[in-house]
Amino acid sequence: MAESSVGGKLSGIAVFIFALKESCIFPEDFLRKLNGVSLLQRAIEQALAMGVESGSIHVITDSEQANLVASRLNVAGFLLGEDKDSPNNQGSSVESYIEMVEAGQKLTFVLSVYAPLLQPSTLRRIANDFVNGNALVGLPGRQEISSTFSSRVRTLPNLPTHRFIQKKRIQCDAFSLFKPGIVLGPKVEKSAIDVFPVGDDAFEIKSLQSWWVCEKLLQRKRILFWVIGNRAVGAGHIYRSLTLAHELTDHEVIFAADSESQLAIDELSGSGYQLLTLPRPDLVKEMIDLRPDLVVLDILDTDSELVVRFSDAGVKVVSFEDLGEGSQHTDLTINELYDVPQRVGSHYRWGHQYYFVRDEFNAARQISLSKEVKGLLLTFGGTDQHDLSKKIFRQVRQFCAKRKIHIYIVTGPGYQEFKELEKETKKYSHVTLTHATGVISKIMEKCDVAVSSNGRTVYELAHMNIPSIVIAQHDREFTHSFATKENGFLSLGLYEPESTEKLVEKELNNLVTDASLREMLHQRMTRHHFTANKAVVLDMLRGCLDS
Questions:
Q1: d(CA 187, CA 532)
Q2: The domain spanning residue 490 has which CATH number?
Q3: Which residue range is the domain that position 438 belongs to?
Q4: Residues paired with 168 in a beta bridge
Q5: What is the rounded CA–CA span in Å between residue 339 and residue 335?
Q6: What is the pLDDT of residues 4-59, one digit of tens each?
């Protein structure tokens, strides 16, 4: 059985790399440098990185220069004659050379020079699976996505309106595996061939265009976002990291969430990004093994041991909303919800000038001051741990009905009481309930005032110029200092059961009936805009990568 481990050695494997002129896309392309390293050298380094000893790697070539590259990298080379059939290399033919090398081996691995993105972990995994299987030949298979169109509009049968996505696995030529003696033997039956699934790292160079694409992919850096998301902390960390990730298209982005962050797992599973999900201790090791260039920690307070583990592995570290001891060891910590610095250090960034709204707000219509209040928004984050959606609704529904104010309630993906609230609100024509929307800005455009928790929503409300009553749901929210009268908010402090509900009704009455109060709060909000800040934060992330 072949043995493998991260950084370990594979035994019983002979690797052949063919660098032949007749297989080139353009003259001796295997010697041309792709992002600074030739295709041949990359293939040799892939074999070494997967754990094969240098003495088990063999370059078969008809190029003297390619043979020299093999020699300088301390791997074996076999130089074919000009007619490809003449005996050379001390009287050996290529067939006898391969037969000699295969003797006593468990596996023959033929590695293409035209798949420079292949990861050592992919090669190790497939080598082990093949050795332990019964197939005589192993080939890689990539998933290919194709689409067809049809019309779902009966009156427009020739107009393609609906796209059908089809996925199929096709064979590629990134590598091939053989049991001993099969390379030189007769053609095997189809039943003796096993196809191993591979990912995007099996991308192959087949043209000058794909050469260019491959070079751009090699120039990418790897960024890991570790996010938290559960009933206790809500979904704000998820949305922030996704907003940043969508802009980092020049790099490879991977997400990670510990197994206790079920809300994050649910939201990220359909995001299109690779997602790592493991218990926290195992997750850290897996992230380090991926050798990222940058790790973004959006998991609240970090500890020193965690951050130092990443730093010692040569990984740049950025954290958000982090007041923990670990934030002292990061390359950059952005605490946009804290206008007053809580720690000392030149790598900290404090205050709302670093807060940015989600992309849906970029083109949103900001609210103009109206003489009468016609719409009220109630929203309390991704989980609403105190069920304020229901409690505040019950407290203000009669007041709003009397004043002909429409109530818009928006609950988050982690809200557990939605079905009960839905059943209750159906009785009222002046109430609209929306759950887990991705476009809350559209609802905000209909509202003149709001009642909200003291999280990221207050910045969205300020951006939209909606005077609001704010309730801190827990101690951490209570430390967020942006929601003040100077910024256009009426803050009620930390939630107190029963008394806070009554206070909300009182303050809402003041806000609705006192036009001068609303005008003052509205005017103070108009100076806040949170769209341009995203570019500032992205520049800081790219700066960490470049450094």
A1: 63
A2: 3.40.50.2000
A3: 365-525
A4: 144
A5: 8
A6: 333 467 889 999 999 999 989 889 999 999 999 999 999 999 999 999 999 999 99
